[in-house]
Specification:
Layout: E1 2-11, H1 14-30, H2 35-54, E2 59-67, E3 73-81, H3 89-92, H4 106-113, E4 116-122, E5 126-134
Antiparallel strand pairs: 1-2, 2-3, 3-5, 4-5
Helix pairs in contact: 1-2, 2-4
The protein binds adenosine-5'-triphosphate and magnesium ion.
Length: 136
């Protein structure tokens, strides 16, 4: 079950990336996440927000409170853009691969830091990355 209550933020500048980080930190803390897990999801959020801005040409971040079928609570983040998309997802998820300028660590790092990771992309249409971290 997903609680529809969530916040959406635009990602169109570096300041927006900072705001996304802050919102995710607040949401994770108020969900009762440990400090270590808060840092993990904030780091993932930071990388994904930066990708939305830099590679996706900007977009939005949604921060949702979720509860699974067993009543376990978590925080889910959805990053959406309508940029050029990712032609080769396996390549993009490879540590050290960058289409230019970066370290190629953001996407694989975000996947590792989250409990669940989903990437939907279509060339010429855009990209949506969804990550979830459960309270343990
Ligand atoms: N939202 C997106 N839209 C289009 N391409 C993307 C998007 N996110 C990631 N990519 C592609 O996937 C590649 C790998 O992303 P990743 O975050 O791992 O590395 P990076 O952004 O290049 O460098 P780093 O994040 O380490 O500074 C990017 O270089 C880019 O080509
Ligand atoms: Mg990146």
């Amino acid at each position: 079950m997903t609680t529809p209550a969530g916040d959406s933020l635009p990602i169109a500048s570096n300041d927006d990336v900072v705001r996304v980080r802050q919102l995710v930190r607040t949401a994770a803390a108020s969900a009762g996440m440990s400090l270590v897990d808060q840092t993990k999801i904030v780091t993932a959020a930071s990388e994904l927000a930066r990708n939305t801005f830099v590679h996706g040409g900007g977009g939005t971040a949604r921060v949702e409170s979720v509860v699974n079928a067993r009543g376990r609570a978590g925080v889910r983040l959805v990053f959406t853009d309508e940029g050029g998309g990712i032609p080769d997802v396996a390549q993009a998820l490879t540590e050290g691969w960058t289409s230019g300028g970066g370290l190629g660590l953001g996407l694989p790092g975000a996947r590792r830091l989250a409990d669940e990771f989903e990437l939907e992309t279509e060339v010429g249409k855009g990209t949506t990355v969804t990550v979830t971290k459960w309270i343990r």
